[in-house]
Amino acid sequence: MHGMGHNVLSLNQMDTVKSSDVCAKRCRKMAAHSPLHVLFLIDHLVERGGGEGNLLKVVQLMPPGQVRCSVATFEIDAEIQKSIPVPVHVLPMRRVYDLGSLRAARQLRQLIRDERVNIVQTYFETSNLWGGLVAKLSGALLLSCRRDLGILRSPKHDLAYRLINRLSDRVLAVSEEVRKFCIGKDRVDPGKITVIYNGVDLRQIAAAGHADGVGSDLAGARHLVTCIANLRHIKGIDLLIQAAQQVCREIPDVVFAIAGSLYESRYVQEMQSLARSLGVEKNIRFLGYVENPAPLLKISSAFCLLSRSEGFSNALLEAMACGVPPVVSRVGGNPEAIVDEVSGFLVPPEDPDTAARRLLRLLRDPVRAARMGEEAQAAACSRFSAETMIHNLITLYNELMMEHG
To answer: What is the DSSP string of 51-116?
Structure first.
């Protein structure tokens, strides 16, 4: 799906947005004595990780007595749709510049008005830009989410974001590092940005067994290092394999499990070839997508994610909640999640050598590894629980309603 182009807003459209405020205030007054209605608009729901996983978690855990949730998307997996406990609206659209986008815009506008949507919360480029504009023209408040450091943007997106940011009632960043990016790159007013960290469902983690669905070869591994990430270049799987080679020289029976969708087929083939060329193909398991990684994490000696860029890693939070000591690159929100040498190890980006040394320290010193895992788990429980995330979101929704009531 292609993103927005240069001419995001005309002067007439800006005037229309201003006039829609009257309609918006009228709708919000009518809904004053009922749960506020938040419509989550996302480009696609075909995976359960990253931003998609965050949205699914939010709508599943949001208390219906306080917030009424709906979801709208341009593409959805049928099995995922069955699992969503709130109304889902599919708006078929392939491109922003065709008749399909006009039909989708009318559908979205009608949905917002008929269902008295108070707030539209957008995820990903097309929803943030195209959807944000339609939401404002329809009289809803716009909460625009920023979940990364612009890794998928083109120059036209940069201009479009600067324009749509003028219309957003609030920008939601998943980390302080993403907040800084929004201020510096997108020129967002700092007072307009709220940081709410991703949250991990601690009850789901606690309910997961230590070997449920885990293969016997993994469950029986004396040393198991796990990485939860879709196989994409940005996730640094090549760096992990290079680090694995060094670790395997010292501890030949260590197993590296990589759990994630085979996102970029050419990159997957390159990683399999890299593992063979470095002589570690027997030590590395490409597991593909794992719906519930908690059992795998609970039997792991360490977690390793050497991403080249991150907004705020859900996989890292899951590992922390499972009490697994992490070794992660010092990028994005990772330094906000763990304290180096206390609740995990932070290593420089593009540095598999340092990552290997840190992994060896954990594998050779299980007492220290356990202590780090406990610190990581305590941080996940106190700062990054799904309960905390939901509480902060509800607080933000109420603030928006009060500010624009």
So the answer is: HHHHHHHHHHHS-TTTEEEEEEES-B-HHHHHH--S-EEE---S-SSSHHHHHHHHHHHHHHHHTT
What CA–CA distance (Å, rounded) separates 211 from 67?
36
The residues pairing with 226 across neighbouring beta strands, listed in sequence order, are: 257, 303
Phi–psi pair at 340, nearest 5 degrees: -55, 130
At residue 3 the predicted structure's pLDDT band, cuts being 50, 70 and 90, is very low
Please write the tens of the pLDDT for every residue from 219-235: 788 999 999 999 999 99
* pLDDT-based confidence at residue 97 (cuts at 50, 70, 90): low
b/e for 334-363, b at 16 or more Cβ within 10 A? Answer: bbbbbeeeebbbbbeeebbebbbbbbbbbb
What is the longest distance spanned by two Cα atoms in the chain?
Answer: 69
For residue 137, give Cα distances in angstroms to 120, 134, 172. 12, 5, 20
Residues 246-282: tens digit of each pLDDT: 999 999 999 999 999 886 789 999 999 999 999 999 9
Q: Using one digit for the tens of pLDDT, what is the confidence trace for 155-205?
A: 878 888 888 888 999 999 999 999 999 999 889 999 999 999 999 999 999
Q: How many whole angstroms from its chain centre is CA 13?
A: 31
Backbone angles phi, psi at 89, to 5 degrees: -120, 125
Token output for 400:
């928006």
The kind and range of the H/E element at 170 are strand 170-173
Number of H-type helices and E-type strands within the chain: 18, 13
Give the mean pLDDT of 374-399: 97
The whole-model pTM stands at: 0.88
Contacts of 7 (CB under 8 A, 6+ apart): none
Report how far residue 366's alpha carbon sits from residue 301's, in angstroms, rounded to the nearest whole number. Answer: 8
Number of C-alpha atoms within 13 angstroms, CB side, residue 82? 3
